[in-house]
Amino acid sequence: MSVQCAVHICAVAVLFSVALCSDTTPSVKDHQHVKELFVAVGSAVDLPCGDQGDVEVQWKRDGTPLTTGAILSISNVSMEDGGTYTCHNLKKDLLWTLSLRPGYPPAHPGIHCWSPSYPNKAMCSWSEGPEPLLPTNYTATYWIGRCHAVGQCGVGAPQEATVKYVCQPVPGLSRQCALENLQLFSLDPYLLNLTSTNPLGSVSTVFSFILEDIVKPDPPVNVRVTVGAARQLSVEWAPPPTWPNPTIFPLVYDVRYYHGSQESARRLNQYESERMVLKGLRPSSTYFVQVSARDQLVGQSSDWSQPVKATVPAQ
């Protein structure tokens, strides 16, 4: 990786080898290096025609003629300026090719952590704002520590006395990772250090949490609603398969049901079993039923399961 400084901004250029075929005369090289130039949106950049110096050249973007001159100046780079730039001599021979890729340096992301498989595993995900629009790599580590001051979360923790773990990437999800080897009921919070890196820069963000505060099971599964006795519906479900041990860490369940709109939903709380009966329902009405789960002692409720509908028979 090299750094090429234009008149107005320092831009990062990455060289990669590309075979560029051209119908030029034999005096022009058949193979050239294409330079990939990453620039920040809103910045200014000057593009020289390789090592041609002050030679007058014709500039094109994606094959469309732009202007002539030894240097192509862009005063306020936008996403629309992205593309393949070429410069040509007066004989229209290709002299240089450059791929301009506008984007943004990484910003401090919003981080969200939850534990759907307490106590075995927690998950963290993050979102960028604005989107970098460039290839961005993420690395995350975590450990038990302290936030010493606002804006200095984790600063000053003795590195040699701290055991750090790598937050494992989740296949297919570039902005999510899994935390394992977790300690229950720690008086100190966990600290997650997320570093975002792309060709325009790097930024690190530290997020703190208490494990028991972020316990959130996945929704219950296999929700079934069947017609029972008069004006009744029987509801059954199973615990989420991601919850590792319902016997040692029991779940309680909430049930909500409605007919018409969700705004009219009624909620029934704290069922320890995996079945219940809805009573006193309206005949000939279709009801939608959902179930959520939460650990009996810590954390928060899961999202609601997908609605399952059933119709109460006419009397």
From TrEMBL:
**Domain Fibronectin type-III as annotated: residue spans:** 219-315
Q: Which UniProt keywords apply?
A: Glycoprotein, Immunoglobulin domain, Repeat, Signal
- Specify whether Signal is a keyword of the entry: yes
A single Gene Ontology MF term assigned here is: cytokine receptor activity
Extract one GO cellular component term from the record. membrane
Segment forming the signal sequence:
1-21
Return the InterPro entries for the record.
FN3_dom, FN3_IL27B_N, FN3_sf, Hematopoietin_rcpt_L_F3_CS, Ig-like_dom, Ig-like_dom_sf, Ig-like_fold, Ig_sub2
> SMART domains this protein is in?
FN3, IGc2
Pfam families reported in the protein's UniProt record: fn3, FN3_IL27B_N, Ig_2
- Which family would the database say this protein is a member of? Belongs to the type I cytokine receptor family. Type 3 subfamily.
Protein name per its UniProtKB record: Uncharacterized protein
- Classification of source organism: Eukaryota, Metazoa, Chordata, Craniata, Vertebrata
